[in-house]
Amino acid sequence: MNYQVVLDSFEGPLDLLLHLIKKHELDIMDIPVALITDQYLKHIDIMKTLNLDVAGEYILMAATLMHIKSKMLLPPSEEEETEEDGGDPREELVKRLLEYKKYKEASEELLSMDMLDRENFLKGFVEDVEIEDSEEDASHDVTLFDLMEALSDLLKEAKAFNPHEVNREKISVKDKIEIIIQKLSAEGSLTFRSLFDKASSKNDIIATFLALLELMKMKRVRAFQGETFGVIRISSSEKSLGTVH
Amino acid sequence: MEDMRLKGAIEALIFASELPLKLEKITELLAGDFAGEFDGHLDKKEVKTLIENIREEYEDEGRGISLLEIAGGYQFRTKTCHASLLQKLRAKRPPKFGRAAMEALAIIAYRQPVTRAEIEDLRGVDSGGVVRSLLEKRLVKILGKKEVPGRPMIYGTSRFFLEHFGLRDLSQLPSLKEFVELDENEEGMISPLNEELPYDAIEG
Nearest Cα to B21, choosing from B31, B11, B34, B35? Predict the structure, then answer.
């Protein structure tokens, strides 16, 4: 099978170049083009061996580097020298790198700023509150779209939390249905999130999600939210399970 | 005495408001309510002084919240020093930003109005996906279309961007670090925030 992985570690050719410059402690204003080109191509090769998706931008940059390298080897022709204002073939690339670096640093600074819901909170952000009966009356059933979005959030987080997945365990939707029913009969109603264990794998999440859809289809559970885009809660629609208060 | 009641009223308004409350709005609401007491005359300056008073009171270490100026208005937010405590209480996770998204966001914030092509030129990579996700997160909005061939969309940061990063306005963004050695003639290129622009502005 042919896997394609897109790595997040380098955001693009400029990022890779900045990384190389930093790693080899080079002066950005006076880049040794031969060295950086070699290193750059080596990295492209590694990406290729790992079967990573090497985007066209990387190839274009490789060509640019080689072009600059060849220009550096040639003695400057007299015409060019007068036309191009001194004409260091690296000048344009250095300008781009500096410009990119500026915004990359700015983005790091933004990320370190106090953010809403990360450092500073507004009143009433807590969601872990028991829902009152009256509130449940005012609630409405969630759409599949709401659930899909909630699922995609979970998957995103799962991706962030477990980059490595070693064992493949057998996960059946049937088992997950049992688990959901058990959880519901113990607790009455649950938040969508609490159906999923924090450390679940992607497969696990998907199986649980399918189980939930199945239960909803069978009308054994009901998914609702107190307000649009609010917390999705799941409750049993069977009287026998009842609501434990 | 009146000042005390007025101050209390201001605090109540800001506390109860879901969005940052503007000074004009506060003054307008108070002028209506306290009409008899101020002969219908209530100065924005007076209100501002009282707001400053309240702000200073909340700076006390014994208070867990502070009064901040956000997106041109006033809002109570919990203090940063209690972040980790509050994170434990929260069920919702804060929006996560990838590096790519943050880079695009920084470029949009500092260079707005900006087209996707300009973002991609700067970053050297396709940025359609990250711009879309920033739009979905409401941090970025479409300002209009640029009057050039193809009429590309132009992007800028939203009000929610200011709220999210706790900024009063864009001038509070940390300043960009320039490379002085190279940039004597580029200085003027980077601050087009207030420039007149050739696009059809769409409020978004």
Answer: B11
